[in-house]
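ARCHIVE CARD
CATEGORY: sequence design from structure
SOURCE FIELD: tokenized fold
FIELD CONTENT:
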């Protein structure tokens, strides 16, 4: 396998980025959560960052947190 090294010129280039809270486990958990009227929860590890906040906000009540124990 051959890799080519790309030289960076230090300039800024416009781009777009997006974020999605996908993954098979989370998708299945959310489907069960919705079908059961909120009776299912997803047990997962979350950090203390914007990605964790995003996941908690897309389906409030889906993520099992310490308050539910």
């Amino acid at each position: 396998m051959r890799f080519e090294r790309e030289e960076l010129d230090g300039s800024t280039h416009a781009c777009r980025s997006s974020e999605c809270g996908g993954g098979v486990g989370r998708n299945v958990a959310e489907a069960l959560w919705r079908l059961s009227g909120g009776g299912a929860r997803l047990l997962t590890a979350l950090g203390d960052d914007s990605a964790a906040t995003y996941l908690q906000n897309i389906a409030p009540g889906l993520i099992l947190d310490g308050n539910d124990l």
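CARD ANNOTATION: The helical segments are 24-35, 50-58. Residues 24-35 form the longest helix (12 residues).
SHELF: design records, drawer C
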